[in-house]
Q: What sequence folds into this?
């Protein structure tokens, strides 16, 4: 390219008379001491059996693919490639998600800018939706600080595909000084964002994330304000590094204290504040949710904001979530909702992908474009215009607030796009089982509310059956605490939408308060203090697996009869009949026992479960009665909730709720 080019980044502006290219993603690298996540920045070498299709990336060179050594990461933008080595940047953070830009924006081409020193080769590749790889271009490089521009079309990327480039070190080795992906700036405005972090008694996490954001100079011009909504008693302002965080944020940090209203209450406060103009009469263009227990890659915030700027219509731009304790484990690539069963989760094959085992280039599924129904609020950008039209979060404390919001926005014409290359590391939910603790109440109540609001099927499709099955599984698994909470949630749904704001600060405490009444809800970390396993008769060794389809009906009938009518074995009242791993404590295995010692999800303790036919009868009868009422009233309830939705999610209703739930008195 011989014409004059101006690069528009968050830190500079257009040069008059020059072609304007806006930087939409920078090539970035981990620090030298952060090699646990290196496979997300430089794709691991591929073995022949790992090829995704077509010629293997780099097959035309004789160089050996090799992961960089820790000291090859010269800076967050710079990488050394040693003599004769081949390094691929076809990685999660550094490949360009061409199909997403093609499908959701009007951008038709991208420019790859690479600045190198030393000698070697730059090779550009692309993939298609089937994961087949094509070599697009290559250049021999030898000068110091030379800039190389590659013009790349986005036209054939509707269904999927990425761009990336590889580096091959020559005789003297090669240094990548910096690289970035750029698009024609046109008249697209550079938007600003309010970052909203909700925290409850994690001041160390919260302050660390504030300082990480403050350390990114590139974020300075796009972050309008960072709002930390502190709902705890261990205050962010008391954290040792808080003063440093305030100074580093240079007037852009605001801590708001309020009563504990969960994630929906905390994020609703951030949304509410984003709708208000600051002292200069300015409003941010976007609001971004951020959990407190995360590690954020600042580049991800830039990419989300920039992508949102270019979207054809205002769009919710979500980010992926990696495991904080297993940094290369991608827990979900897209989140969808089964509209008939009204169940959330990733599409088949897109959950828990370890990119250190097989990187982006080697995974066919990651090369097609995946359209999300919603994005988790661990990190999610929402345009202010969406907040103005759609309203704020549903007042439900936790669970389903994020998914319901995207469904609501979609009904108003605003899609959710989960953008590859934008992500946080978050404490994984796979080491928790919140479906059997106090959160079981919110799982049930909020899922039903979301289905009443958004299901297009008669009586919610399969939702009633799903709800009945959830309750039954808890009951026959000796999870009576969870079973009671599910019924409490169902009862509160039947009470209608107008109690939600009143319950937001009380429902969690009420659910936790019931825990002391149930034996199986008491977790002991002193395993030696729990009774030993004893049985009156020996048992055959069997594998924990569900009954086959032909056997399911007779199994269900015999299980119900046993659970309801047969008294438990006398010895089981004193001793557990088995020790069961948490992974095996399923509805199809637990009913075999009259008592069992069950470990918890994070492995820190265990609890004693004891079969109680009286509780089974009481919970089962109440479940049948409440589900029958829900079936009878479904259409009327759905209309009631839908009519109330604009009111209960309005800034005015939330303002009243914030006023009624001030922060508790400071412990200082």
A:
């Amino acid at each position: 390219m011989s014409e004059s080019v101006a690069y528009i980044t968050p830190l500079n502006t257009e040069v008059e008379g020059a072609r304007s290219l806006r930087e939409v993603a920078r090539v970035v690298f981990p620090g030298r001491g952060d090699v646990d996540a290196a496979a997300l920045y430089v794709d691991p070498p591929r073995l022949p059996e790992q090829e995704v299709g077509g010629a293997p990336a780099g097959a035309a060179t004789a160089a050996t693919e090799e992961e960089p050594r820790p000291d090859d990461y010269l800076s967050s933008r710079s990488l050394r490639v040693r003599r004769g080595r081949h390094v691929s940047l076809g990685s999660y953070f550094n490949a360009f998600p061409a199909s997403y830009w093609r499908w959701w924006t009007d951008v038709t081409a991208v420019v790859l800018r690479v600045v190198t020193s030393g000698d070697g080769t730059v090779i550009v590749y692309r993939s298609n939706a089937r994961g087949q790889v094509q070599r697009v271009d290559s250049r021999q490089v030898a000068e110091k600080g030379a800039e190389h521009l590659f013009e790349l079309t986005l036209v054939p990327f509707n269904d999927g595909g990425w761009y990336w480039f590889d580096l091959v070190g020559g005789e003297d080795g090669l240094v990548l000084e910096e690289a970035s992906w750029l698009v024609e700036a046109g008249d697209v405005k550079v938007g600003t964002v309010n970052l909203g972090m909700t925290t409850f008694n994690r001041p160390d996490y919260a302050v660390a994330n504030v300082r990480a954001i403050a350390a990114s100079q590139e974020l300075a011009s796009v972050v309008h304000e960072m709002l930390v909504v502190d709902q705890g008693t261990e205050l962010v302002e008391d954290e040792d590094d808080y003063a440093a965080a305030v100074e580093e944020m240079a007037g852009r940090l605001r801590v708001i204290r309020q009563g504990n209203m969960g994630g929906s209450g905390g994020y609703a406060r951030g949304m509410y504040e984003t709708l208000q103009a600051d002292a200069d009469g300015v409003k941010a263009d976007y609001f971004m949710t951020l959990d407190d227990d995360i590690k954020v890659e600042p580049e991800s915030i830039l990419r989300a904001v920039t992508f949102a700027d270019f979207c054809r219509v205002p769009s919710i731009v979500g980010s992926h979530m990696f495991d904080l304790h297993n940094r290369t484990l991608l827990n979900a690539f897209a989140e969808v909702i089964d509209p008939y069963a009204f169940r959330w989760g990733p599409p088949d094959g897109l959950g828990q992908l370890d990119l250190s085992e097989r990187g982006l280039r080697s995974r066919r599924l990651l090369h097609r474009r995946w359209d999300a129904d919603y994005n988790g609020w661990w990190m999610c950008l929402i345009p202010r215009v969406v907040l103005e039209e759609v309203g704020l979060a549903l007042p439900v404390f936790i669970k389903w607030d994020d998914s319901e919001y995207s469904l609501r926005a979609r009904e108003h014409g605003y899609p959710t796009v989960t953008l590859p290359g934008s992500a946080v590391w978050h404490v994984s939910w796979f080491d928790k089982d919140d479906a059997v603790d106090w959160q079981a109440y919110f799982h049930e109540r909020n899922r039903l509310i979301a289905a009443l609001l958004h299901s297009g099927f008669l009586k919610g499709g399969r939702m009633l059956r799903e709800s009945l099955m959830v309750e039954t599984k808890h009951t026959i698994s000796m999870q009576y605490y969870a079973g009671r909470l599910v019924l409490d949630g169902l009862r509160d749904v039947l009470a209608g939408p107008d109690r939600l704001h009143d319950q937001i600060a009380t429902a969690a405490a009420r659910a936790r308060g019931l825990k002391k009444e149930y034996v199986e809800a008491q977790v002991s970390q002193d395993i030696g203090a729990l009774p030993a396993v004893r049985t009156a008769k020996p048992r055959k060794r069997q594998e924990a697996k569900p009954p086959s389809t032909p056997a399911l009906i007779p199994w269900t009938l015999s299980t119900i009869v046993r659970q309801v009518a047969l008294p438990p074995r006398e010895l089981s009242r004193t001793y557990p009949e088995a020790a069961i791993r948490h992974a095996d404590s399923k509805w199809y295995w637990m009913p075999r026992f009259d008592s069992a010692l069950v470990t918890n999800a994070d492995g820190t303790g265990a609890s004693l479960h004891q079969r109680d036919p009286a509780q089974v009868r009481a919970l089962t009868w109440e479940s049948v009665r409440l589900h029958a009422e829900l079936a009878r009233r479904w259409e009327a309830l759905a209309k009631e909730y839908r009519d109330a939705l604009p009111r209960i999610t309005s800034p005015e209703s939330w303002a009243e709720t914030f006023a009624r739930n001030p922060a508790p008195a400071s412990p200082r």
Notes: Confidence is low (pLDDT under 50) at residues 11-17, 48-52, 54-61. The two ends are 63 Å apart (CA to CA). The chain has three domains: 21-184, 193-335+372-431, 440-535+543-618. Residues 193-335+372-431 form a domain with the Spore Coat Polysaccharide Biosynthesis Protein SpsA; Chain A fold (CATH 3.90.550.60).
